[in-house]
Specification:
The chain has helices spanning 7-38, 41-67, 71-94, 100-128, 135-163, 166-185, 199-212, 214-229, 233-244, 249-271, 276-296, 303-331, 337-365, 368-388, 390-396. It is mainly α and 400 residues long. It folds into 2 domains: 1-186, Up-down Bundle (Growth Hormone, Chain: A), CATH 1.20.1250; 198-400, Up-down Bundle (Growth Hormone, Chain: A), CATH 1.20.1250. α1 runs antiparallel to α2, α1 (7-38) packs antiparallel against α6 (166-185) and α8 runs antiparallel to α14 (368-388). The chain is globular, with a radius of gyration of 20 Å.
Length: 400
């Protein structure tokens, strides 16, 4: 917990904890609203895709915009816009004006705002902890908040939906953004030196840096293949729960819980890493572990074997994503950090959304286990490719 010794990060940590909890509550309530209004599983998938897809398109340009402005002030402005978006969603729901078209539109607007919010928060963390020494710990603690929110938020949302409307959940999320706004406003951080030139020029500079810097390029390739394949398991979990394990909603909850438990343990382990090289070693191990777990999970028809496989898969995906983010932020110079983080976020969440659509299509053509086995084969090849370059990656990191 050493990163919490820095007051700016401590303020961010408290505000972010509240904000993430509100975001998970809204995510569950929105899914429930979609299904209650339409009864359409297809619209559920479309709404989820609409909330993630903009980050793939807008994210890289958002990074260029971020590096041209004061990141702290820009983050505060984005929190205000997120507050307005969630409040509008609450009002539309309360007055029963919401419908499928408006839900997709609101999901798209949330996706665009998140395309700015995610890289903004991530790029400010190194400044909050005063440099690179405590950066791995800070990023791991930030990821730990996300996984804790995934544990706590959905049950709270379920309780709220039992005796209140979806609008109350959306309104609660709106006010949760004010907690992070307060934390950022209370910080005393020096403004970053803005990048010179137009957004297009700054964007091209970031692309050129990512392409010409071998460690960044290699890690982005691994990141893309990991989230295109391994992260797609979540879309197919309801199919496995019902058709493979012959269970019900409780079975699905066990499967989700196993993956979430593994992800949480991974962030705890990353928080104990004392160096960037140690973080890289754990990230490499996690990619290989995710490949093997993705191969083992669809081969098992026994829930007692599938649950540990999912825990390993959750551990691998979370550890690899957070570890790669940490290494990339350590390598990148401060003037380019917003762009590098935006490339990470775009690939991480954008390809996650695309991978889910591909997995669903493959499962419809064949079966859910066959779809995951095909993606596992690609991820195993990725793990082998990464292991063959692990030595060069370690040597390219100058920070001990």
């Amino acid at each position: 917990m050493r990163a919490l010794a820095h007051r700016p990060f401590r303020l961010y940590f408290c505000g972010q904890a509240v904000s993430i909890l509100g975001s998970w509550i809204q995510q569950v309530a929105l899914a429930w609203l979609v299904y209650r209004l339409t009864g359409s599983a297809a619209l559920l998938g479309l709404a989820a895709f609409a909330a993630l897809a903009p980050i793939l398109v807008v994210g890289p340009l958002a990074g260029a915009w971020i590096d041209r402005h004061d990141r702290r002030r820009l983050l505060m402005q984005v929190q205000v816009l997120l507050f307005i978006q969630a409040s509008a969603l609450a009002a539309l729901t309360w007055f029963e004006l919401i419908g499928p078209s408006l839900i997709i539109l609101m999901s798209l607007s949330l996706g665009v705002l998140n395309a700015f919010d995610t890289p903004l928060r991530q790029s400010l963390i190194p400044v909050m902890v005063g440099g690179r020494d405590d950066l791995p710990n800070a990023l791991a603690l930030n990821a730990m908040l996300f996984n804790l929110g995934r544990f706590i938020g959905p049950p709270i949302a379920g309780l709220m939906l039992g005796f209140m409307s979806e609008a109350a959940c959306f309104l609660l999320n709106a006010f949760s953004y004010l907690a992070l706004l307060w934390g950022v406003a209370a910080m005393r951080l020096a403004a970053n030196a803005p990048a010179a030139g137009s957004v297009g020029h700054v964007f091209k500079e970031g692309v050129r840096y990512a392409f010409d810097t071998w460690p960044i390029r290699s890690l982005l390739i691994v990141l893309a293949l990991l989230n295109l394949t391994a992260s797609a398991y979540a879309v197919l979990l309801p199919v496995f729960a019902k058709e493979v394990f012959h269970g019900d909603a409780r079975t699905l909850g066990l499967l989700w819980g196993a993956a979430g438990c593994g992800a949480f343990v991974a962030t705890l382990m990353l928080a104990t890493r004392q160096s960037v090289r140690a973080t890289l070693n754990l990230a490499i191990f996690c990619v290989v572990l995710a490949a093997l777990a993705l191969l083992a999970f669809p081969l098992s028809a026994d829930l007692l074997i599938a649950l540990p496989a999912l825990a390993a898969l959750g551990f691998g995906i979370s550890g690899a994503n957070v570890g790669i983010n940490t290494v990339m932020q350590t390598i990148a110079p401060d003037r380019l950090r917003g762009r590098v983080v935006s490339f990470f976020s775009s690939i991480r969440f954008g390809l996650d959304a695309i991978g889910g659509l591909i997995a669903g299509s493959l499962a419809a053509l064949s079966s859910a286990p066959a779809a995951l086995l095909g993606e596992a084969a690609l991820l195993v090849a990725t793990g082998a490719w990464l292991l063959s370059r692990a030595g060069r990656l370690r040597q390219s990191i100058r920070t001990p």
